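Quick one: structure for this chain?
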Amino acid sequence: MNSVMARRPWSFKEDRRLMELAKSSTSLEEAAKLLGRSPDAIKRMALRLGLSLKSKGSKKG
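Got it. Here's what it folds into:
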């Protein structure tokens, strides 16, 4: 996979989807998979939208 992913603009629909995923406690990695974006891109957008997504590594048993 290319280390530099092409940055495509986020659509309003994707914003809404990310908000829904964050509300339902979806992990960062899962959200990235569902939206077809890198975890980094998800993290950046979540910050911009004031959302917090947990990374799989930080899940408490």
